[in-house]
Amino acid sequence: MTTTREETSTGLVTRDPRDERVIAEYALEDDTRVVERVRIAREAAAWWSHQGFDGRKRTLLAWKGAIARGAQDLAAIISRETGKPSGDALLEVMLTLSHLDWAAKNAHRVLKPRRVKAGIINYNQKATLRYEPHGVVGVIGPWNYPLYTPMGSISYALAAGNAIVFKPSELTPGTARWIEARWNEVADRPVLQVTTGDRTTGAALVRAGVDKVAFTGSTASAKRVMAACAETLTPLVAECGGKDALIVAADADLDSAADFIVFGGLGNAGQTCVGVERVYAVRSVRDALVEKVVERAKRLRLDGEDPSYGPLTLASQSEVIADHVADAVAKGGRAVLGGPESVGGRRVAPIVLVDVPEESDAVRCETFGPTIVINAVADLDEAITLANATDFGLGAAIFTKSAKTGEAVAARLKSGVVTINSVLGFASIPALPFGGVKGSGFGRIHGADGLREFSVPKSVARQTGKAALNLLTMERSDRDMHLVAKMIPMLHGRSR
Length: 496
Known about the structure:
With 496 residues, the chain is α/β, with parallel strands linked by helices. It contains 16 helices and 21 strands. Helix 1 packs across helix 7 (199-206), helix 4 runs parallel beside helix 5 and helix 4 crosses helix 15.
């Protein structure tokens, strides 16, 4: 089966998933080249760190402006490399810029040194908490959102004072090269570098001496990256896959729920790690919901100049989709729209499945295609139990007209992100951290937590005078220890 990328003796050839036309060729960078990039980045990191928050802010905002002025060109590259519609690609650019803007403007507030109360016992100490950059961060990005997702690490790591070596997916190197070129227009130091290649290049980056790794990809790949990081105790933030559940209560606005289900489940050809793959609707409204979802999904266009979504970026993913659909039907599920016949190469028509057994691959495993499973449940308790029953925990959603119910369900869902009466709404809120739990990864990007993720806390305690009790000595007096014995129950003996 053809893919969007092929290896030649000299490098990587990328092809447009829509028509297989060659886009460009890129180098397959080896271990030696990657190590050299990290060395160069380390020198640049020292300069970048010394620019301070204000200096970094100016450069990052200038970079943002350069990207914004070329947004249409960048969107065209994203569209060619991934196959997604140009409008979707432009939306990706817009969302990315909002995060870059927030990181640049809020890094000082979040990471500036601050005084910490030392406590009554330590009246002679002044305590300060500082945040320092790691140094060089290696970023390994995905192909489904080749700008928005890796920039969630790159923007915040740069704002925190780190240099970046970015290894994009071998399917989407052009997007990375374009933003690197814009960086070089506004900065005269290689604080951001792109290394191109395949998995071996990514493995080389992990072992090249970077100070932290930010990885986005499958759970299986994250485990391999984590094992490599363990060899040198290199810290890792991992954003992995999901099998996100959406719950529909009996009082939900079904038209709104159906709109969001179709958007979250079928948008970008279902190639969204935090999209909608499973729906649990209370039995009294399930059939009506299915009817509305099918009606909307039937209106989607796959052909013409303005399709609703494009072909699969990774051609081999069609095999996974076909297997999951076949398994669901074989185990008793029903296809109410499409079915196994909907999977024909890169272009996969919408598939809506119902009554799919929970042990089916279509429920348990990440499908990453334009398929939606809609199962009935007795009540919200059952929906929450089933939503939490997979190995993933990236995102989830609840639709209900009751604000109290929405918040209560959100509190019980085991996922890093929960949306109430929408899907993917968090993506446009830069202040909210993003990341998963369980098999969906750990660590956070975006928001204040994203800035701290790429910083190292440093605690500083400064003694300003002599202590009343001389306890930090090998020759403590009986008097001082007698006072310690008296003070313990006085300070800590009360229950409140």
